[in-house]
Amino acid sequence: MKKILSEKEWIITVDYSQTLKRMITNGNYDWIHSDITKEHFPLPTKLIGWKLGVSIKLFHFSWQMSNKDVIAEMNKGGYRPAILAELLVLGETNPKLQSQFPIIALGSVWQDTDDDCNMPFLYVRFNERELNLNQFDNDLSIDYRFLAVHKSSDQGFKRLISFSPNH
Fold first, then answer.
1. DSSP string, 45-84
2. How many C-alpha atoms does 65 have within 13 Å on its Cβ side?
3. Cα dist. 121→104, 106, 113, 142, 158 in Å?
4. pLDDT for the residue 156
5. pLDDT at position 93, please?
6. 37-86: per-residue pLDDT in tens?
7. Which of 19, 58, 110, 128 has the highest Cβ tally under 10 A?
8. Domains of the chain: which residue ranges?
9. d(CA 12, CA 44)
10. 51 with 15: CB under 8 angstroms?
11. pTM of the model
C-alpha cells in the first residue's frame, strides 16, 4: 500500500544575510562537494539581507518515485521543494538527522557541463557528515527524505524576523 509518511512540521530560521560559504561552515560538515558554490547555487537575490522563519517538513514515501512526482505531492500539500540555504540550516540545527537517512533539497538544481542536473543532499557515509551532490533523475529510493517548505512561508515574508541593510 502506497503511503506518504511525512513527518511533523517545524520552524527554522534562514539568515540570508550570511554568505553561502558561511552557511556551509556553520554546518560543520566533514566533507563538502567542490561544486557546491555560490556560482552554482546562488542565494535568492530578493532574500539577501533578510532573516526569515520558514515552516519545513520532511516528506517520505513508501514507494519509489521520480523527483517530479515528489514535487507534485509536495504541491498537493501546500509545500514547495526546499533550496540549498534551507537544507543547510536544517543540517546546522539538526546535525544528527542526516545520519538516519539522506535528505534532499529538490528546489536547488545545478546543471553541469555534461548537462546532468545535480541537487544537494545531506548524508552520512563512513561516519562523516556530507554535503553532497547527486543526479536524482531516476526513481528515488524509499530511504530518501525530501525537505519541503510550506508555501505560506513565501507569502509576503509572513515570518519575517529582521533585515540587515549591510548587504
1. GGGTTEEEEEEEEEE-BSS-B-HHHHHHHHHHTTEEEPPH
2. 22
3. 4, 9, 20, 15, 27
4. 46
5. 95
6. 999 999 988 888 889 889 999 998 877 778 888 889 889 989 999 999 99
7. 58
8. 10-163
9. 17
10. yes
11. 0.88
